[in-house]
Amino acid sequence: MKSKKGSFSLMKRMNINLIINLIRKSGSISRIDIAKKTGLTAATVTNLTSELLEFGIIKEYSMGASTGGRKPVLLKMNSKRFYLASAYISPMNVEVAVSDCGAEFVFYRHEKPFSDEFTPENCIDFIAKSLEKFVSQSGCTIAGLGVGLHGIVNSEEGIIVNAPNLGWKNVAIKRIIEEKTKLPVYVDNDVRLMAMAETWFGADQNIGDFAFLYVGRGVGGAVLSSGELMRGKRESAAEIGHTVIDMNGPLCECGKRGCLQAHVSESAMQKRLEKYSVTESVLNHESDCNAIVDAYLNNGDELAKKIIDDEIRFLSVGVSNLISTFDPCCVVISSSIKNFDIAVMEKLSQTVNENDIGRLENNCVVRYSTVGERAVLKGAVAAVLSEIYNNPAEFNAT
Ligand SMILES: [Zn+2]
């Protein structure tokens, strides 16, 4: 598979994404309404929908309601045209899924870590066997596979450069999976795929300039500029988790002191809990982050409040730094912690406002992700779809 820098221009890709998403969400829609809702010219809509019709990913449908004159022809997704596979190898488990080309999941399996044998070979074997099973049972054709991974991933070469929580370094994952599955494979960092999912499946798919910040075991970031992911020379652009916000702060996993990740990740919250006295709290030193948020929201627990307040304060610095550095239209927050949005978002937005007067002037919105569960898998589907539009001949979709 070639890189994204092919003949398929950025503008064309963005317009096609826009049209497909509108058709997908509307169920069926006329070309005239697509033009009205997207702001694209009628000629552009006609040209792009012709290509999509020829490709077979959309089809013409029954007649819509007439407004006088000739009844418009409606367009809808031809979702069963081909299927797309996606996989997520995280330090927690391996997930594998298949969706139709309308991005609806039709198959899903996951596996917990393979005890001490959490090797690339074991993970890939699980993915390949799961997909073989799906194909033999359904008789469906899979056009391509998108894989999300934690760590620094060179997406162009298909190599995991460094995945510290898996202990993998310089693994040519794309080549190994392609050999095993015989599918065209696209690999990328998990947080970048979450950001990609936001533009395809989130509430506002027209955002081209936005920053994404994920709070999980670590802190990940991604920045899209004019709809394109910023990657950097070593594929580590927007690693907001390892920007230093306090030179005298706690030690980070990366060896530096005071990284954002050392203040706001799940591990940072747990370390705070270990440090504080829990005698007056419903929490104990073994409570996880879900329990901390739950105690904050449902018990009015003072210790939980103290931890969440710290979380908001440090997170607001990270968000303000993203805004000052990249000038995005929007900062999207996501987290693996249950009800994190309810616990932090309102106060986080207020605190960022107080930190940064500039944000009020450029109307940068700070909001929580609307993609929901399985965001990495959804992003992997979006990435493969983008590659298919870019180079259809290289996929099994032709
Ligand atoms: Zn660090």
Could you explain how this protein is built, in words?
The protein is of the alpha/beta class and 398 residues long. It has three domains: 10-79, Arc Repressor Mutant, subunit A; 82-195 and 374-394, Nucleotidyltransferase, domain 5, CATH 3.30.420.40; 206-368, ATPase, nucleotide binding domain (Nucleotidyltransferase, domain 5). Helix content is 42%, strand content 21%. The strands form four sheets. The protein has a five-stranded mixed β-sheet with strand order 6-5-4-7-11, sandwiched between helices. A hairpin with a 3-residue loop joins strand 12 (210-215) and strand 13 (219-225). Helix 4 (120-138) packs parallel to helix 5, helix 6 crosses helix 13 and helix 10 packs across helix 11. The two termini are 14 Å apart. Bound molecules: zinc ion.
Instruction: Say which molecules are bound, naming each kind only once.
Output: zinc ion
What's the SSE pattern? Answer: HEHHEEEEEHEEEEHEHEEEHHHHEHHEH
Q: Indicate the percent of residues in helices.
A: 40-55%
CATH architecture assignment name of the largest domain:
2-Layer Sandwich
Query: Mean pLDDT, as a whole number?
Result: 87
Write down the domain tally.
Answer: 3
CATH topology of the largest domain: Nucleotidyltransferase, domain 5
How many helices? The count is 13
**pLDDT < 50 stretches:** 1-7
- Report the span from N to C terminus: 14 Å
Strands, total number: 16
CATH superfamily of the largest domain: ATPase, nucleotide binding domain
Q: How would you characterize the largest beta sheet?
A: 5 strands, mixed
Q: What is the CA-atom radius of gyration, in angstroms?
A: 22 Å
* Largest beta sheet: strand ordering: 6-5-4-7-11
- Gross morphology is globular
Q: Provide the CATH top-level class of the largest domain.
A: Alpha Beta
Based on helices, strands and strand pairing, what is the structural class? alpha/beta
How much beta, percentage-wise? Answer: 15-25%
